Amino acid sequence: MKPQHLLLLAPVACAYTLQHQQRHPTFTTGTPINAPRQSLSSANLLRMDTEVPSLDTVTTYNLEKTLKNIRLHKEISLRQAEAQHGMPWKSSIDPKVKDEELLYMPFWEWQMQFMEENFTNLKVVPCHNGKTDFSYNANEKMKARIVNLCATSDEYRKIRMTYYDAGDNTQVFNAVLYPDAALNLPVLGVDILCFNRKKYLAIVDFQPIHDNEEDHAAPYEHLLKPIKEKYDSLKGRMSSKFYDETQHFSQQMLFARFDDEEIVSRELFPAFQSYVKTHLDLVRSTERRPEDVTFVLECQKDYDTYSADRDPATGLFAAMFGAEWADDFVHDFLFSMSERTEGGPPPSMPFTGGPPPGAAAGQPQPPLSAGAPQMHSHKP
Ligand code: BLA
């Protein structure tokens, strides 16, 4: 989270900031503690957007927790936030699509219901970076639209969900759940895509925040193994085109490229449900260690930076919604603790989506956009 994320919550953020500044005079850019009152003006708050470096992760975490407990706005429920953009949609933005228009909407709907029924103190968080509202975007001409929801609960520091609908061309459901930072546990990641109604890609994983499983608060791969064993079509291996399978991916990742849509309802949906439930069980059964917060946040931040640098979707979003929106979306919404590469190139790779034939389970498989130039150069 960057200072600009707090702009929506400006009055309280500011009050808290000033109070905090008095205790920790080095907190911001060196503004004198007894700076004139004009530092409270909205003009100054907006200047924070460009002039103040990112808050440190622990300060941000504490700030978020404080803000969470203060009723600033009229709080809206998860269902109200969902309904703001007419979700769950019943038909595609592309009128040409006929059957099963929104292939992955049942994933969204089930997760919403599961969260409502099982998460404690579930609250909506604005999808905003102070400049752009990321909750919805559309390219009417290209017949593509995206909807995003962000929330928090006692169990999860950040929950985000995305549905991308571009008719038969592309359907995506993407979600990440970050455990509360007092829990040194893997992040739950979901990326499920369909291209041209022919090629399907699915990844669901407890994404490690450390190189070794044993460095987490509890081992977890043994919980996933019996689930994965039941689903033969989800035992594939990712390529090395975008990510490194040894970093932030577990041995028990569900991974599949396939061309038979039946697999979605027969295997992927129940497997996804089991992984989500098992993740919540893990979160619930793990003891909180407040002394781990700083460390865990740093690890989640590394995960964000790694993911933002490599996210193949940046090209897709740049093509549909413009390079600037895409870059901000990736760094300020999807992976909001990520550090941007200084002077890095703006996202420009057009998304090709040209699907390869399916490959056998257990073998690394080429990406759908094989041959396209890599988007982001990795940070040094
Ligand atoms: C691959 N994910 C991809 C690709 C796209 C997306 C376009 C490349 C497809 C290809 O050409 O083969 C799409 N990623 C998205 C979208 C969003 C996004 C639309 O973040 C955001 C809304 N990706 C994740 C998460 C995981 C993940 C949380 O965002 C982990 C579960 C995994 N996506 C993942 C992997 C690949 C991938 C591992 C590469 C597969 C491969 O190289 O074989």
TrEMBL record:
It holds the Pfam family Fe_bilin_red. Residues 1-15 form the signal peptide. InterPro entries: Ferredoxin-dep_bilin_Rdtase. This is Ferredoxin-dependent bilin reductase. Keywords: Oxidoreductase, Signal. GO terms for molecular function: cobalt ion binding; oxidoreductase activity, acting on the CH-CH group of donors, iron-sulfur protein as acceptor. Residues 339-380 are annotated as: Disordered. It comes from Nitzschia inconspicua. The keyword Transmembrane does not apply. The keyword Ribosomal protein does not apply.
